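re: that chain from earlier
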Amino acid sequence: MYMIEKWAKDVDPQKEWLCFETSEKDKTVVKQVYCRLCRKFSSKLRAIRNFNDKFVNGISGNSLKKDNVVKHSKSDMHGHAVNFEKNPGPLSLDAIYKSTPLGRAFASASATEMETVGRLMEIAYMVAIEELPFSKFQAIANLEIRHGVKLGTAYLNDKGCKTFTNCISETILEDLVGELNECPYLTILVDGSTDVSVQEKELIYVFYVYSGQVRFSFLRLKNVKHVTAEGIMAVSKRQPRLQERGFNSPQAGLSMAGSNSLSKSSA
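^ sequence. v structure.
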């Protein structure tokens, strides 16, 4: 307990956020350490990028290290929690559009503003799903406005559509990583594809079991320098977007198709 109190003096001298719980049997033994602010605003923080619930639920055992506490204090997630504490009021629609990523501000928006942004995101989602060019976003939005739908005036263009689409993709990826981290094993599937510029690309999918159901999800589209077994293997193993979000599930299998050179790969 003395060690934890010493950490608190260095990391949280004002005693604003670092809290700990002791064992019922022995009050000198620290059971877990958590962040009061991140726990308080956990529902809002879940919408931001790189959300991690370790300091919401509390760290214990081998994770009780000062280094982990210091890293949390410098994280974006903790910074947002501090801002929520200092500025509890709802954000304006202008602030929502200026925030990056969009979802951070969206989590603190008022009900009316959330509804407005939600409509714009639904249009962007439809454009993406139907594989329409982003330039169609403005025309569809203007038609909705003529029908009496309130969409505001900001970001009613192709750049706005890209912003909303990126926000949606980040949310989908966060959900996917959450599911993958609960899987004991998974399989990466890779298939070749050629775009309009005749550049070789690899479509990467993930095959896994979640809550008793077999699931098959698209992961990413990746350029490949050399269409060989080694080149495709390298592409399939490098998944920085997953790793930076806390992905730690072990890969159990790899299936590749689309190149005769794959047969040359050694086991």
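Residues 20 and 33 are 4 Å apart (CA to CA).
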